[in-house]
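quick one: magnesium ion bound model?
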Amino acid sequence: MYEKKGDKMRRSLTPNEIYDSIFSIELTRLYKKGYRNILIDVDNTIIPWNADIISVKLRDWLGKCRNMGFTICLFSNNKSSRVNRLAEELKVSAVPKGGKPLKTAFRRALRHINGSPQNTIMIGDQIFTDIWGGNLMGLYTILVNPISTSEFWGTKFSRFLEKKLAGRRGLG
Ligand SMILES: [Mg+2]
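yep, here:
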């Protein structure tokens, strides 16, 4: 069926699911649906932007994912030193300096975890990197609200566009 360009654009910016935080995600249901890998953004998705605060709750959640059978990989556009250190702390793998939303970046991440678009979930707080890229690659995409409002200036501008172009609501 003919689809208008604007509709296609809007669809590629729409996540499959939206949650207030990663802790509300229904992991069991997703596992039953066949998903086995989780690519997860770092800044403002699992920890506040550029603050290395690892909560007990986050550790527990990652442990729960692992026990359930998920492979988790930090997929961030932030610098290698920081993302790799966090990954080591959290005992998960990492693809830093990701280059989201580019398809090549997502391909690299999928190769890294030996995953496919059919069995991989992308979780993140930004529509124009995490969700857009994930959708372009055919992953199952989950948007969460950003942990804190303190952000990189470029991200702040992106938030403005998220509201204007992608109709994002519910941001605090
Ligand atoms: Mg983020």
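Residues 41, 43-45, 124-126 surround magnesium ion (CB under 6 Å).
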